[in-house]
Every structure is written in structure tokens, then in C-alpha cells.
Amino acid sequence: MQQNKGRVTLPSQQNFLEETKELMERWGADALRDSDGTKLDEEIKQLNAKVYTTYFVARSHNEFAEKHLEEMQQLYLMSKFNTATGNELTIAFLDGYFEEQVEADYIHDVKKWWEVIDRTTGEVVDPVKWQVDKVQNVLIITDAIPWHEYTVSFLAYMKWDPTQMYNHITNDWGDKPHEIPFDVRQPHSNQFVKNYLQKWLKGNPDTDVVRFTTFFYHFTLIFNNLGEEKFVDWFGYGASVSVAALEAFAEEKGYRLRPEDIVDQGYYNSTFRTPTKAYLDYMDFIQKFTVSEIKSLVEEVHGHDKEAMMFLGDNWIGAEPYGKYFKDTGIDAVVGSVGDGTTLRMIADIPHVKYTEGRFLPYFFPDTFYDGNDPVLEAKENWLTARRALMRKPLDRIGYGGYLSLAYKFPSFVDYVGKITNEFRSIYELIHEVKPYSGLKVAVLNAWGRLRTWQTHMVAHGKYYKQTYSYQGVLEALSGSATDVTFLSFDDVIKSGIPDDVDVLINAGDASTAFSGGECWLDETLTSTIREWVYNGGGFIGIGEPTAFHHQGRFFQLADVLGVDKELGFSLSTNKHFTETVDAHFISENITSYDFGESTDNVYALREDAEVIEYSNGSIHLSSSSYGKGRGVYMAGLPYSHENTDLLMRSLYYAANKEKQFNVWHASNPYCEVHAYPDIKKYTVVNNSAEKQVTHVYLGTGISYEVALEPCEMKWEDYANEG
């Protein structure tokens, strides 16, 4: 059933025709694309392949933007904290920002749109008590309270698109013009965007797919005075703010936003912050506007018999694919960067599109493709982690990005990508419309729910952070495991309860974050609903500081379900007696060592019947507890690894009271997995490592056999009357 061509997109560039033809043949590519900084020759466009062309909606048009600088995109920024030592305080509010990127907005009334806050008391300073020196870019408070801290929240114009700025600095583009982003909410910009697209479509008859990169508003990416990243949030809505937007919001929602609703004490409504009602309303407002404008552009593209593709990155704010309005865009496809299994599922699971596409790593950039480096190592690691998730939900297409001339200089890399593309096609042809076996249904519970499907604990897309890897490992493990995964918000549970088909709830995160829940756990409907559900047979897994908010003598608000709580120092006078570990437990079977990542300390058992599985350094790191007919499981953290995936799966089955079903379509070796597809009576045993592995394979009836696998190998088998 294997096809040797198709479902692969190849980046190309000028003066690279013959090499492009060669790699199209070797990789079986049926589509060609340009990249940021490259163009396709006319001869390349005439090759037998679909042509993707990168299209920038609200940047890369300086000839227009320079004539309408009043329509540059805006954002709210906050100054540093400044301490008053007397009654007058001068604040250089641009201090620490990169002035090639932003400048203060003096076009609109600063007294109306800016805000000065006494951060010691939280009170807003009356505008009559401050004034702005527009020449010096300073704000002067004339009636400050000595030894109080103050900040200025100010409107700024964004003079340089953050992605182009990043590429400019990284690739040393020298005198290349700085691309000015403009706001489609503004009248001239809105008309220009639509007129230019019409003209562009007529002038690009060889383009088959318009690759929007992306649409209007960039995720929040602000640089410091050194030209380095200062603040980056892949989900941030900061760059969608404008006076026009704030006025339209007030008209639509019936109340006005404060600058503080956007700058959020300097946290800028990071995805880790539990969202306020005002911020959720603002997101909803931006999403509706963005989707309506996208729809008109997509209709224009379709009118020229071309497809519209959205890049999941850069200017994607308001176009979130798991948002409730996204289906109205009419977009044909979404493409995004695949850094691991989690990001693959984030793309592959997107609804309401004809196809999804993943850009695999490494990008063909000089930071990887240089003399002495072996890009095959990164490519192999990327493929192995992504393939796990692919077996659960395959992308429709894969591809690469960057400068093809760089990759071409590495023959071993070219050979390896040929193997990847062939293996991808063979997998896709077998399972793309086939539902894989799932032993459990798991719901990840946090403040964001479905909107952040496969996107929890990200700061910047796909990047490692010390404070998050202990939790992001949960999603990475689930991305390729035999479970159905859904995402619930606290509001979902409060309004509608827990879906009947859910076996286990997972709540993971640090205290006070959106992912643990913070003050959300003060809602008695939320806690009562989950308690009742677990008591009647449900499973609940808490990781890190789950359900954490100090209230009424508890820190973990579902401590009774979990059987453990965390010592905050308030009850040190109360002895903690239950520290003896169990001799054996289903969860820890075959586990030789533990890795809880950054871990959580000072967790103790509440009662004697709590099953302590791992206790060290005065703290419980792994435990279980019965709660009526249900069970709670506590973990101190779960970084991704093959061993921790096995630990999580055992915990899930135990919490669900389904231990007897664990050895169904299962591999005993944690470096291997079994993926079964009952509808086509096939299964495959996969080696997820670059080393030889031997494993017992348990079939649908529990029958097992031993198999040896070469590095990275997959073995497909037919079966009958199993499972």
C-alpha cells in the first residue's frame, strides 16, 4: 500500500532548479514552497507540483504603511517599577524597551488612554497628578507618596514586526527595511488588505496555495533595549490592542476596559495566569473580529480557485483553531511547526479544515546546517517523538522549511529524510481514517479547557522552560498513548458536569496558575461535582500542586480525594505520621527509578489508608488513595520520558479501576508501544528509540509473545478476533 510520492512539501529557492528536481524525486515531494527570505524561480513554479506562496497580510508592505503611520499596530506596555523617594517622581517609561520596535503613542490623549498605578496600594493615580514630557519620553508624578512604587501603563505603536525583527537580527539582514505592521481594524489598512490581495491573486496565477503567515495580530513578542527577547507569550493578545479596538469593545460588550486589564500587573495575561472575565471577553471580541476578516480574505482566495492555508504561528492571535469561531473562517488547511508529539497533536487534531500539515525539524538554517554538525541527529529525534503522536492522529502532510541549498550539502540528511517521507506515507495510507484502540478516556482539567487543546504549559511554542517541563511531560506522554484525550475547563465542569465517557481527570500545575486553578477552586460547585464523580467511581490524578489554593485549612482543595496535602508551614506543630511506603503497588510495578522533575516538596498523607508509593526527603512524591468507589493519585511532577509514560499509564488505569485491562495492546518495554486498529484488524509494534529493543507484546486477548526490534523499527501485523 506504500506510495513513493505525495503528501510532502519541499522548500526551495532561487537558482536551485536542478537540485530541487532531484530532491522532489528522492523525497517524493508533490508541493513546493518559499520561506521568509526566499523566492521561487518561474522555472521552479512550472514543475509538476503544487506551489505554496507565503503571503503576509499586515506586514511587508512598507510603501503603504509609511503613508499611514497612524494605523500602525498598537499595544499596551508597562514601565518598570519605580520607587518614589520624595513627592515628585520621574519615570522613563520606555526604559528597557527596544526603541527600534516601539514608540509611545502621543496621537491619542495620554490622560484618557494611559494609566499610572501606585503598586504599593493598587490605586490608580488621578491624571491631574501627572504629566508627560513627550520630548524626553518621561512621565512626572507631582504628588507621589514617598517610598511607594509606581508604574505607567502606556499605549505604544509597534514599528517593527516581531518575526521579521527576529529573523533580521538572527540572520544579520543588515540594511533590509524594517517591516511595519499595520492594523486591519483601521479604515485605510482594511481597504488596502483587501485590494492588495485581489491584485496579488491576479498577478500570481502559478500559486495553488496561499500560505497566510498568518493574518493580523502577532503573539506578544517584545524586545528589550539590547535587541533581545524581553517578553514572549505564544498566546498573548497584547498586539491586538488599539484605541479603535477599545472603543469598539466598549460598544459591543457594554463596558470599558482599563489598561490594567491588558498589562495585568506586568504579567500581560500570560497563559499561566487564570484569565479574568474582562480578558476572556476581550479575547472573544478579538476572535470574532479576526475570524470575520479572515473569512472575507479566504472567500477572495477561493474565488480565484486557490486554497487558503494558515500558518499556526506568528500573527495567529484571534485565529485560534480551537476557538468557537474558527470554523467560520473557511480555511482549507493549517500548517505548523512540529517540535514533539504534543505539537503534532495540536496541529493534527484541528477540526473544520480539509487537511493539516506539519513542518518537521530541523529548519534548514545555518544554526544547524554548518560544517562539523550532523543534522540527522535532530531529525531522528524529531521524527521519533512525532511518530508516537502520528500513530494516534496522523497529519495529512509533512514538510520542511528554510534554505534547501543548506540541506543539500548534507547527503546523509537527504537520505534520512527520504526514509522519513516514505515511512510517513506508508503510515498515513494505512490509518488516516481509522480510529485507533483506546483503553481509557482522559480529560485534562484547567482554566482554559478546549481553547488550549494540546497547548498547556507552553510559554513560547515548543520551547523548554525549567518551570514547565515537569508538567508538559503529561501531554507529551498522552500524545502517543492509547487514550482518548479531551480538554475541560473549570467552567465546563461547573456548568455541565463531567462527561459520562471520561474515566480520569488530570489537574497538573503550580499553585495559582491557570493550569492548577488558583481561586477557581473556591467554587463549591466545582469541588462538589468532582468529589461526587470520583466517589461514584471516577479517577482523579493531581500533579505538582493540583487544586491548590489556601482556604479553610486546606491547600489542596481536593486533598480528601487525593489523600495528601501540602505543608505550608502553618501546621508544623501537627505531626505527620503516615510515611511508610507500601511493599508493592500496581502503579510502581517494573519502575526502577523515579524522575519527578522539579518536583514538589512537603507533601504529606492525611490518613492511614493513603498508599504511599514513593517517600523521600520528608515528602510524598507518589501516592494513591481510595475515595468511595473511585481513586485519587498524586504525583510530584512528570517530565517526559519513556519510563514516565509507563508510570502515567499505570496511574491512569489504576485511578480508573481498570488495572486488569492494562495489558491489552501493550508492550512490556517502555521504549516500545503497540498501536492497534480494530477496524482494519491490524496492529504495529513500534520501537521509539534509536537502540535495539526486545519486548513482550500483549494482544487484545492478553496473549503475549516476544519480539526484537531494530532501532526505530515498526512491525505491522494482521490479527483476527482480537480485542
Automatic annotation (TrEMBL):
Molecular function terms from GO: 1,3-beta-galactosyl-N-acetylhexosamine phosphorylase activity
Enzyme class: transferase
Keyword Repeat listed: no
Every Lacto-N-biose phosphorylase C-terminal domain range: 665-716
Gene3D superfamilies: 3.40.50.880, Glycosidases, Golgi alpha-mannosidase II, Immunoglobulins
Gene: gnpA
Protein name (Swiss-Prot/TrEMBL): 1,3-beta-galactosyl-N-acetylhexosamine phosphorylase
InterPro entries for the chain: Class_I_gatase-like, Glyco_hydro_b, Ig-like_fold, Lact_bio_phlase-like_N, Lacto-N-biose_phosphorylase, LBP_C, LBP_M
